[in-house]
User: Fold these one by one.
Assistant:
Number 1:
Amino acid sequence: MPVVPATQEAEAGESLEPGRQRLQLLMGPRTFTENFTNNPGVPGLHQTYLCYEVKRQGPDGTGDLMNEQRDFLRNQAKDHLSGSHGRHAERCFLDQIPSWQLDPAQTYRVTCFISWSPCFSCAQEVAEFLQENPHVNLRIFTARIYDYRPRYKEGLQMLQNAGAQVSIMTSEEFRHCWDTFVHHQGHPFQPWKGLDERSQALCGRLQAILQVRASSLCPEAEVAVSRDRSLQLATELDSVSKKTPIIN
């Protein structure tokens, strides 16, 4: 089954951005906010959205955006009538890459913004891809940590060991996604209440998993909120996550 952009789930209002060489379907504002919110108490989140950008990097480290490789998608849900087991967003994303025809002689930076971090199986597949394609550098910014399946910590560690940079989304990344992938009709991104505090708390959790400095996982972390508040929220996140079953 071919993967199509996730705009079937978006609100009416996809558009062709000025200057784009092809039709870029954009996500509805409500779809973005409901799926990328880092509030663990929001119910009914049974899907994963993944936004991505690809840049060709030059010898000096600068890069040019490959417009045709900037898009978003979502996971394919299970269909009991057809017998489809569904596919996670990361696997759908990996399926897209061969069509890009990346030149092994050049270096590419791929940046993903994902509403849930990869499960162990998806992390393993992405890590294998990176090992087989050393000309691809991957950055993953995740809104939340997907801890509803076993070995999720091992999966995140595996990604890091394969060379991927795994970080928590902050206001900067949420705003970039809003400006780039959402049909916002000129309305600026409005951070929801508690966004910075929850990002900080999630940075603390990811730091513990990857055992690296929090500032490298969440650049705004050290100035967003106090350490005591982040520890309190981390405890709340753990408590809520155990009570809210999520299907990726």
Number 2:
Amino acid sequence: MATFEIRKFQEDDVEAVRDIFALGMSELVPSSFSHILKQPLTQMVLMCTFCALLTSSKSFLLPILALTFLLASCRQILTYMINRTTESALKSDLSDITETYLKQKDSCFWVAESEGRVVGSVACIPNEDMPECLELMRMSVHPSHRGMGIAKALCRTVAEFTRDRGYAAVHLHTSMVATNAQKLYEHYGFEKIKEAVAPGFLAKITNFTVIEYKLHLQRG
């Protein structure tokens, strides 16, 4: 198994970090689409559309084509929304990582490197709403290097940095469809403190929630 090391971000890492982040965001599309399909409102709309068209056309072809079009449109809209979120991050903090994280007080950005290649990243900044916490952000590991303990090592790096600077806890947000991330955080010791519907009309009608976690640190 390949070895890895965790180190601070360098300017030469920027393209790899952005690519890994974008890839991780794109992986949310299938799980988010599956979540939408499981919602009672979605199933009711699809069933009513199918029955109405079947009754009016007396043919199975038209309702099947209509449902296919609806599902394809829904996935396209979802992909567009996730892409917009990705682009927003790439144009904000990930456009100048050094300025956003490395030059600010109690902030940092790390990468995981394996065999000369950047395969993961994580960052933290002060949490404006919780002065006792640092906020864990931009956790990403390339699919080819998952299962090696990289994400756990990145979590540990943030926790140690947070403790060393005198903060009491690490705080983070993740989505309900990021189930692997939830398992990682809970296994590491994070406690779920809140789950709420994400802002936006589509999130509300599909019951898409954001989960908050907190890791309480022991002084030592």
Number 3:
Amino acid sequence: MMNLNFSGTTNVFKLLAKPSLCLPHATVSTFNEIPSPLEKAFEGRGKKVDIRAVVLDKDDCFAYPDTNEVYAAYTERFRQLQKEYPGRRLLIVSNTAGATTYDRDGRMAKELESVTGVSVLPHRVKKPGCGDEIMAHFKAHPDAGVTHPSQIAIVGDRLLTDMMLANMMGSWGLWIKDGVKPLNEKSAFSKLEQRLGPFLLARGYQAPDPQSPFE
């Protein structure tokens, strides 16, 4: 089944007015390089960062694309992240597993939850347009301690979905630049993003800093 993303197609036009929307606040090469504590990734931006929950992409982030398990080399860091953000504080938001226009019976989401032990968000709108559904999830689970989007870090491999989601929400974005899949095997869109990010940064664009609830 084709995995169309109307949210991505529609929201990409926002980049014409504001190209910085697709830029990350911090970048690492692979999932294993996510710092501990995660706030370290955003040091040096002159703002106090209070990350209470983490939203993880799946494909080419912690899993090989089209698989429903943690990539073996990342297992230790994944389990460590679960300890750092226990329970509802860690959430998987994927445009495959849990995306109700693609994973219609929820089977992929249930399988991924069973394998990882992490909740998978069922969402009607695909990234980057599902920010309201993410915030509704945390509002429904106050034990996560999230009261504002600036308390969330979005971790993923795609600029036009994951990082754009972070900036549209007012959250922090951590780009997994290289991911699992070798560059020569990545999609044309992923290859384009590998050039787009450095191109915009070299021209002085920066991701907008999230505003805390006290600003």
Number 4:
Amino acid sequence: MSMAVYIPIYYASPLAKRCMAVYHKYINSMNERIHNQFANSNPFDFKHISALKSIENFNDVGPSVVMASSSGLQSGLSRQLFEIWCSNKKNACVIPGYVVEGTLAKPIINEPKEVTLMNGLTAQHAGPLHIFLSSCRFCTDKYVPKGAHAT
């Protein structure tokens, strides 16, 4: 008999949070399928996904999934978590799109042995730093053309 494992999932994006508020407010403007779902429960209230406002609100014990912007890892929660987690081989950084020259994401797609942190120090990593997702169904391309989106 297998036991269910609970791994919390968070989204950390001010834009996503604002979008969710709009979806909640304008549920009556949605199509019939959404209206039918809404009769039972709000389809935009995700049972297993929570909003994460800041690193201070994050209880970093055990495994978790955090979807955070910016994908370039330049600042914000995505950068803070990357710097905390990058040296542990159990962690991965999923980059769901193209990377821009001059961002932290650009060099990590080549899996360097160390990265420069925001405080100027370097951190060594113990394993793969990233999983790079392309816009197609199979993650075979290391680089994705500009304008691609993860699906």
